[in-house]
Amino acid sequence: MRLPSRPLHAAALATAGALLTGCFAATGQDPGGDGGRIRVAMMNPPRSGLSPLSDDAFKLSRWSTAETLVTLDADGDPRPALATSWRQAGRTWTFTVREGVTFHDGSPLTAGAVAHSLTRAANASPKPRILDGVDLRATASGRTVAVTTAAPDPLVPQRLSSPQLSILSAKAYRGRTVSPVGTGTGAFRLIEVDGTSSATLDRYDGYWGTKAKAPGIDVTFVPDGTARAAALRSGEADIVEAIPVSQAALLDPGLITEVPMPRTNTLYLNTAEGPFKDPGLRAAARRAVDAEAIAESVYEGRADVARGLLGPALPWAAALRSEPKRTGPERAGAKRAGAAGPDGAAVTIGTFTDRAELPEVAQTLQQQLRRAGFRVTLEVRQYAHIEADALAGRFDAFILSRATVLDSGDPAAYLYSDFASRGSFNIAQLADPAVDKALDKAAATTAGDARRRAVMAAEAAVLATDAAIPMVHERVVQGDAARVVGAAHDPRERLLVTPATYVR
After folding, report:
1. Peptide bond into 126 cis (omega under 30)
2. 367 in Cβ contact with 337 (< 8 Å)
3. Are 284 and 276 in contact (CB under 8 A)?
4. 325: confidence class by pLDDT, cuts 50, 70, 90
5. Do β-strands 397-403 and 346-352 pair in parallel, antiparallel, or remain unpaired?
6. Coil/strand/helix, residue 411
7. What is the Rg, in whole angstroms, of the alpha carbon atoms belonging to the chain?
8. What's the gap between Cα 233 and its chain centre?
C-alpha cells in the first residue's frame, strides 16, 4: 500500500499560485463602517445550491446570513435567537417569536413564517439530518409557534438551533427548491452565488440585532488546502478556514488559531467476531496504542491526546469524567493477554483516504501493534468505497475521525449511534446491556447538568468495554490576517464572520 507523502513541493506551490489568480476581489473601503469587505477562503464549495436543508446550511450560519429560533452557548445549552422564550408541555414545545425582525426581502418575521420553514424541513425528502427519526409538526398562533413531536423530546430547543432549520421567508421556497438568496434574517444579506466558485453578501442595515461593522463579505471556495494557505500568506484573503496541518508550520504563527473540534480520531474494535471478540486482546490493543506519538508525529503537535471520547471542545467533559470500571471478565482477560501477549494474532485495520492524516495514523498504529505482538494488515480506500464494509463488521478494527457533537450540539446522539446495540453507526458491533442502559438514560434525561453527567457515565460504560480506543482530538486551524478583528473561532463551526467582525 502506498501512503500519501507530506512534503510540500515547489510544484504544489506553483499550483496554489495558479489557483489563486483572480480568485479574490479587491477590498473596498466603507466610509461608514470599520474597514473594507471581508474576503473569505472556504474549503468546501456548495453541494446543494446552498439549500439550508443540507450541510450547506453551515455556510449560511458561518456568514451570519441565515438564523435559527435558538442558538447554543459554549456548554451546548439553548439560548434565545429568533425565539425569545420557550416552554414544554408533554410532547409540545411553544416558542415565542421575536418581534421587530424582517427578512432580507423586507417581509416581517411572523409565527406563520417560522411554522412554514419548519414544516418544509420536516416534510423534506430527504429530511435534514437533525430530524432523522423525529416526527415534527409546527403550528402558528399569534406570536407563538407550537412544535409537537411524536414522543416527548427533551432536545427540541437544541434541535432547532441547527443551521439546517434556519428560518427563511416564504420567497425562499419554490417547488422542491429552497434558496437563501435575499431571504434570511441575519446581519449579512446573501446577494449572489456563482455556482461552486464564490458568493457575495452585503451588510443588511435592517438587521434586528447589532449592525454589522463590515460592509460585506466576498467568499471564494478553494478546495485545495495549499492554495488556501497561500491566500493567507500572500494577503489575498482575510479569513481562511481549515488550513491543513502540513501547511500551518509554513505560516506566521500570529496569523493562525487552533480551535479544538468536537471530533475524535478513534480506533474502533470489532467486538462481535475476529480476534477482538476477546476482551483480553482488546485490552492489549489499548495498552499498545501510543496516542502521544500519533499526536506528535502525524498531527505535528496540533492535536490533543484523548483522555476519553469527548474532548476539549466540550469544556464540561473533563471535569465530569471518571475512570471506566472494567468488569471482572474483562480484567481477567486483560491480565491473560498481558501475560501471554497477542501471540501473533492477525488483525486487519481499515481506514480511508478522504482525511489526509488517517492513512498515516494507520501506518503508525500498525507499527505500534506489531511491537505488541499483533500481525497487522492495513486496508485503505476512499470513504465512499469502504463505509459499507466497516458498518458490516468486515474489519477487525477501523480508524475513524468522528464528530462527537452532531447537529443538536448534544453528544448523546453520537454515543447512541456508535455504541448502542441498535445504533445505526455501530462499527464496533457492540451489544452490551450495561452500555445500552447508560445510553438510554442519557437520551431520556432533561438537558442541562443532569444530562451531561449521564452522558459522561455512558462514555465510561463504553470505554469499559474497550470497543473503542480514543486517540486524539482534532483541531481546526483557522487563518486570520493581521488586520482582521473579531473573527469567530467556533469549535462547532457554526460561526465565522459575525456582526463584530471587520478588517482595519
Report:
1. yes
2. no
3. no
4. confident
5. parallel
6. helix
7. 24
8. 26
Strand ranges (E), 226-339? 239-240, 256-269, 303-305
Separation between Cα atoms, residue 287 and residue 290, nearest integer Å: 8
Task: Find out whether 482 and 240 touch, Cβ atoms under 8 Å.
Answer: no
Q: pTM of this prediction?
A: 0.78
Can you give 453-486 as a three-state secondary structure string? HHHHHHHHHHHHCCCEEEEEEEEEEEEECCCEEC
Which H/E stretch holds residue 201?
Answer: strand 198-203
- C-alpha triplet 31, 61, 255: angle, nearest 5°: 65
Distance separating alpha carbons of residues 392 and 487, to the nearest angstrom: 42
Residue holding cell 455556482? 195
pLDDT at 24: 58
d(CA 254, CA 81): 33
Report the DSSP pairing between strands 38-42 and 239-240: parallel
- Terminal alpha carbon distance of the chain: 49
What digits encode the pLDDT tens for the residues 383-412?
989 999 999 999 999 999 998 986 777 898
Rounded to 5°, the CA angle 304-300-379 comes to 85
Q: Give CA separation, 355 vs 98, 137, 291, 393, in Å.
A: 41, 38, 18, 21
Sign of CA dihedral 336, 340, 346, 350: positive
- Three cell numbers at 350? 481499515
Return the amino acid letter for 224: D
**C-alpha to C-alpha distance for 343 and 440, rounded to whole angstroms:** 38
Q: Which part of the chain is CATH 3.90.76.10?
A: 70-174
From residue 478, alpha-carbon distances to 225, 232, 237, 258, 349 in Å are: 12, 10, 12, 6, 31
Q: Contact, 366 vs 376, CB < 8 A?
A: yes
The residue to which cell 473579531 is assigned: 486
HSE, CB side, 13 Å, CA atoms: give it for residue 132. 11
Assigned CATH for 260-475: 3.10.105.10
- Taking residue 278's Cβ as centre, other Cβ atoms within 10 Å add up to 17
pLDDT value at residue 31: 42
CB contact at 8 A, 269 and 397: yes
In this predicted model, what pLDDT tens digit does every residue of 332-355 receive, in sequence order?
A: 444 444 444 688 999 999 999 888
Q: Which residues pair with 339 in a beta bridge?
A: none
Q: Which residue has the cell 492513512?
A: 359
* Dist. CA 74–CA 465, nearest whole Å: 30
Which fold would CATH assign to domain 70-174?
A: Dipeptide-binding Protein; domain 1 (3.90.76)
Rounded (5°) CA angle 46-48-54: 100
